[in-house]
Design a protein that fits this description.
By secondary structure, the chain is mainly alpha-helical. It is built from 6 helices and 4 strands. The chain has a two-stranded antiparallel ribbon. A two-stranded antiparallel sheet has the order 3-4. A hairpin with a 5-residue loop joins strand 3 and strand 4.
């Protein structure tokens, strides 16, 4: 089976899984009032889905990096494909670090959070949550821009000149 077919089927499967999980989250026990707050029953499903997707993404990223390094021993991939993989890797790592720093700066000075059941989350953990939320937003925006650039073919056109 060609890699494009595998990729398309995996993407479709993940989209279906995510839609089913979010559909269940929004329809099964979503209006579960506990005190003054809404606590949906299937919040754990969404959180586990997120954890599994992050774990799978991290594992596939490491596998891909190792496989790419093995396949390109002694070759310059940019010369054959026109895509500067090394520059893209450095840019991605740099953007991740910069996004975490921006998130940390945005989260400075947070106060402890007290939930309705009395559970207190320290200010440090609230800052950590802010760091990752801001970083995810920045990286999502960068990924969306990268997809748009990839779909327009700007990178491949300039590489083939």
């Amino acid at each position: 089976m060609k890699i494009e077919k595998i990729s398309s089927r995996v993407l479709l499967g993940l989209v279906v899984l995510i839609v089913i999980c979010f559909g269940a989250f929004m329809t099964i026990g979503y209006d579960n009032m506990v005190g003054d707050n809404n606590e949906p029953m299937l919040t754990d499903v969404i959180m586990w889905l997120m954890y599994l997707l992050i774990l799978a993404t991290a594992a596939l990223t490491v596998w891909s990096a190792i496989r790419s390094a093995q396949n390109s021993k002694g070759n310059d991939p940019a010369a054959t494909t026109g895509v500067p993989g090394g520059k893209i890797t450095l840019f991605t790592a740099g953007l991740t670090i910069v996004s975490l720093i921006i998130g940390w700066v945005c989260g400075l000075g947070e106060k402890a959070f007290t939930a309705s059941d009395g559970t207190v989350t320290s200010a440090g953990w609230v800052t950590v949550a802010d760091v990752f939320m801001v970083s995810m937003g920045i990286l999502f925006l960068a990924a969306a821009i990268a997809v748009i650039v990839s779909m327009t073919g700007i990178a491949t056109k300039s590489a083939s000149k």
